[in-house]
Amino acid sequence: MEYMSPLLEQFLTCLERQVETREDEEQNVKLTEILELLVAAGYFRARIKGLSPFDKVVGGMTWCITTCNFDVDVDLLFQENSTIGQKIALSEKIVSVLPRMKCPHQLEPHQIQGMDFIHIFPVVQWLVKRAIETKEEMGDYIRAYSVSQFQKTYSLPEDDDFSKRKEKAIKTVIDLSDAYKPRRKYKRQQGAEELLDEESRVHATLLEYGRRYGFSRQNKTETAEDKKAALPMGLSAAEKADAHEEEELQAAEEQRIQSLMTKMMAMANEESRLTASSVGQIVGLCSAEIKQIVSEYAEKQSELSAEESPEKLGTSQLHRRKVISLNKQILQKTKQLEELQASRTNLQAKYEEKKKTLTELKSYSEKLDQEQAALEKIEAKADPSILENLRALVAMNENLKSQEQEFKAHCREEMARLQQEIESLKAKRAPDGGEKDLSGGEPQGAPTPVMTHHEDLDRRYNMEKEKLYKIRLLQARRNREIAILHRKIDEVPSRAELIQYQKRFIELYRQISAVHKETKQFFTLYNTLDDKKVYLEKEISLLNSIHENFSQAMASPAARDQFLRQMEQIVEGIKQSRMKMEKKKQENKMRRDQLNDQYLELLEKQRLYFKTVKEFKEEGRKNEVLLSKVKAKAS
């Protein structure tokens, strides 16, 4: 009895393992940590309760990879609750990207598909850390780009004030630079001797611009006693000699500068006089220009004289000249300002007009773009073959209309020409008919060539009229055919409708498959529980029979031996039953492996089918493009 109970318990435990699934608490804990990491990183889609854990985890991993500037060929927006094949394909695509990102953790596709969150957690943790680092690296760049894009369209009040003051400030700086820039006051004579050393050339250039650099003594009239007193008392004779030599060098330098200055001033005075040739050139100008040049020359001469010898003029006279010069400059600048304001007003009016025209053109362009987009959408939904046929019919209709108009114009021209001929013939016939009447020639009722020609014209007119009637009948027939084709096109479902029907059929098939799978699970559970019940009933009946016969079997040794033999037979029967169940289990396992292999082969065929369909669609699209190009060339 003690040997039989463990066997029954082991057998029942094996049956229970086939229908029960154990929930791993550690897996749930890791799943919760993964979702918390994704939400903290910014993937708030993980909060949606309607999504499965697979969709949340795979979506979060894809979001992290995309945030790290790596491409993943995955579309999770419209493929929730995917099949096993789609899940495996998604897992393989994600795992193929991780080595390129140099992920330190290993991950297999079956671990993602099987939701092994213990091994997924370190990978997600590393991806979240990498995504946060990438966000920090790109934050400054994106912020600077956003600011630049904002400044292209909008501006702050401080920027407006700065832009208003900027032009004025730049103009002021330019005016100051022009007012205080170095001006050449003197110039060397052309016949003057050439300066050989560099120092002399430097001093001469500086003197041309009114700057003096070198040695100069403040008091030229100081006496020899003052010079001697300026030297310290404690200097030796050698030091006194050095000081005297330095004074001689200073005097020589001052003399050299004075000689250079004298040459330049002589050149300036010589240039300040008007020669006969220059007067002859000025006389050739008009009187107004002569007056302006004379006034400008007088002003420049007064300015130069004031600059060269300001000590000769009085303070009031110098001030008066400056005031007059400034007033003239103010009047000139005011006149320029008025001209610029008038020009600005004209330009502003032109700008407003052009701006209004540009706004109208933009609105018209947007309207045309919207109409074109609507037409392209309608054209994309229609069948290409029917659309091409319809285009051909419309082109034929337009061609017939143009031919009809041309024919009408030709008929009008021909009718006008014939009427002119009739009028000319009538004009020719009038004098001839009078002569015939006077001469008693042909009778008036007889047919003439003019009347025959008139009948011919009527006949041709009637023929052309019949042709026009037939053409109108043909046009009406074509219009009816076009209307019939329009109705047929409307009856045929578009590509979008067919795709919608296909999606709905696929959804219904998936629902039926899910219900069928659930029903099979219920049947399996029922059969397992029924077998469990049968074995429990057998165990209870066996225990009851043992309990009833135990007291009688222990009464005598013979009965006890017989009872033990019966127990051994029962144990042997249980062993045989156990062996049968083990054999059945192995057979079911082998069958499951075979079905799994077949399922993997079918999955591979499905992948190949999808790949072939995609390539076929691409080739079909290329074929349509080539056919359209061929038709365009043929037309």
Account of the protein in words:
This is Coiled-coil domain-containing protein 93. Residues 564-605 form a coiled coil. The two termini are 98 Å apart. Helix content is 80%, strand content 0%. Helix 16 runs antiparallel to helix 17. The chain has helices spanning 4-17, 25-41, 53-67, 84-97, 109-113, 117-153, 157-179, 198-208, 224-230, 237-271, 276-283, 287-308, 315-381, 384-439, 449-491, 495-553, 557-634. With 635 residues, the protein is mostly helical. The longest helix is centred in the C-terminal third of the chain and has 78 residues, at 557-634. Among the domains are: 24-153; 384-437 and 448-491; 498-549; 558-635. The relative contact order is 0.04. Residues 1-8, 10-23, 215-235, 266-286, 308-313 and 432-450 have low confidence and may be disordered.
